[in-house]
């Protein structure tokens, strides 16, 4: 494969509140620079011929601006049409990102291979889905799954802006939020780092979700309102607070924590409908691709309820 750089030219009254644990106890959990370091490594966004690139470019450009990161627009193809597609996409990106922070790359090969090569040293790699569902969404999701399991970058499946999507009457309880899955693993801490950075950069509220099979009810805790709703599993609440506390201290973000009962994939998909972003963690341990990614991350990438980011531990 050859790569060419063409950059030149439920809430009810509070019951049985569970207080947050002292955050000094968990500061050791988060130290140093975020592993994915997007501001330094940059963002790669893939565009394809035949699809309107506006949605995925808009998302990637906003992320680049918020994180002060360079943006690389990537396309696979080796003909004049490929040059035209890339030129158009590059022009769109340069309207949204400061001059000198956008470059374009054309690769001769399969889209997955071209994107993987371009994103080898990137912090985030972004692919986009068209408005509505279908085989195109599955194909994009399959590419994102491969990038998440085999690459070094956070892999994002960007949904089009709401104005370009069909009406969605069934929204989740956290519209406009950044929703992040938490389970106490290194992968979920990487997801929390990314989620808090995104929420801070875009001035979005954040909710960290822990899914349990041991509780008979859903409940959530809001740091700003100091309310806890329908809590009967204080152990789960303490775990979420242990994980979220250090990040909440480091970022100026309105953060809430939630505990929900059910299957993680179904719960996160339901809660993130209408959310700004859903973030899930990906294990970094040597393992088979399915074991490394996990069924939840794989499921939300293949059928994204909103824009989804899968972040490596």
TrEMBL record:
The UniProt regions of compositional bias labelled Polar residues, in chain numbering, are 1-15
Q: Fetch the CDD domains from UniProt.
A: USP-like (cd00293)
* Region named Disordered: 1-25
Q: Pfam families, alphabetically?
A: Usp
The UspA domain covers: 177-312
Name the protein family: Belongs to the universal stress protein A family.
Name assigned to this protein: Nucleotide-binding universal stress protein, UspA family
